[in-house]
Amino acid sequence: MYYLHYCVMVILFDSFECWKHFRVKRFSGEHKAVSADIDQHGIVPAEWFMQKLDHFTPTDERMWKQRYFVDDTFFDFKNGPIFLRVGGESNANAQWMVSGPWHYNAQEFKALCITLEHRYYGKSHPTNDLSVENLQYLSSQQALADVAYFIETMNKQYQLNDSNKARRWVAFGGSYAGALAAWLRVKYPHLVFASVSSSSPLHAKLDFKEYYEGFRQALRAKTSSLDCENKIKESHKELVDMIKKNPKAVWEDFISCEPYSNPSTDDLNQFYNYIAFNLAGIVQDNEINRLSIPIEFRNITINTICDMFTKSNDKAYDALVKVIRLIARMSNWGCLYYNYKINEMQLKNTTIEEDLGRQWTYQQCTEFGYFQTSTAVADLFGDNFPVDYEIRTCQDLFGTKFDKKFITSSIDWTNNYYGGQNIKARRVLFVQGSIDPWHVMGIYKSQSKDMPAIFINGTSHCADLYNERDEDSKELVAARLKIREYLETWLAQPWT
After folding, report:
1. Is the peptide bond before 28 cis (omega within 30 degrees of 0)?
2. Nearest to residue 89, comparing CAs of 190, 148, 1, 13?
3. How many domains is the chain partitioned into structurally?
4. Does residue 189 surpass a pLDDT of 50?
């Protein structure tokens, strides 16, 4: 990630550490283990940038304060690069300023490090609430324009334009932010010289049924067996039977925040969705060095939970309870809400809060879809959260106009605007993991010498972005080195 005169690098990470969003209320401290006390401990102080509210309406001169972080510890102003990390759909985590491969490379190449938070997430609030009227300014298009305006302003502030030396901005990102990194190269090629796009879902889709099919394939790949998959199927059948016979016991087993004995269809759909989501979360984050997970839980992997299903004498239902309770402890949840109306009420809350579910759900309903449905895995989890369930949630939260026709049209527009998996650009490197259920929405085969792909066998979501560790596979180690080779090659090229 590196050098050549003023080589400017844009690093876009999902500060939820590439964790996918979901609408079940999760209490009480998920992802705060990393970020809660960062600022007060002084890792890097926050600074504020006056950003445009609407980049596409010249007559709208409203501005707002966007948060960013700067670290000049290693910076050589005369010849050093600038690393600019732009946030994804979450709080900008200042610990990334001193963690991950980009930080090591910043030290080696004497770079200035900057992190820019995504609008509407974390503490970057363009508007005073999250009403539907105000959320119209939340979009990937506005976010990309934020980056472009920020780059232009930083060039002036740091007087980078006063030199005849070439300045190369290289965009890095993971997950949604990985898509932003690739799209920056497509939409702002005069500002961004190259991009590295990790685990990026480039193709928007309404019914992302492939997600849980990817979950199934990951179980098979990591265990070399169908036993775990079959036990999960068995646990679902036993769970359905238990709900019919003794729902009160089920809610106690699965640490419900409130006791109730007559759940609605919506409650049950949300409950089954929750079970699938949490099992899939282990798969998506399998064997990656997530900063927000306490050390004692960092060995919780696909094989860990599969062993709990297949190598104990427990009934499948009891094994499922133990797995979910383990995940709850790992994520520091007190209890869980399965009541659809309560979750709907929470996500209808338009006040500015730390919980980010409303914002990302809005982007799903207006740009991307990415609804991870049960369509393809009815045998695993029952067909309890189909796409119609997700569409109705959009309508419940944002209004009746957000129907299937509206969402489908918005998704088509997104794919036409960016190109989906058929984007055309030079100097864009795609990095995907074979275990990551998201990889099918991205590019994992090289398109040309100028659009190569690294497909890392056995790794999951954003694995290449995390701190190195002794347990990393040889494929992951080689991938990080290969990324560096591409960057060094590209940074030696003229800007053409």
Report:
1. yes
2. 13
3. 2
4. yes
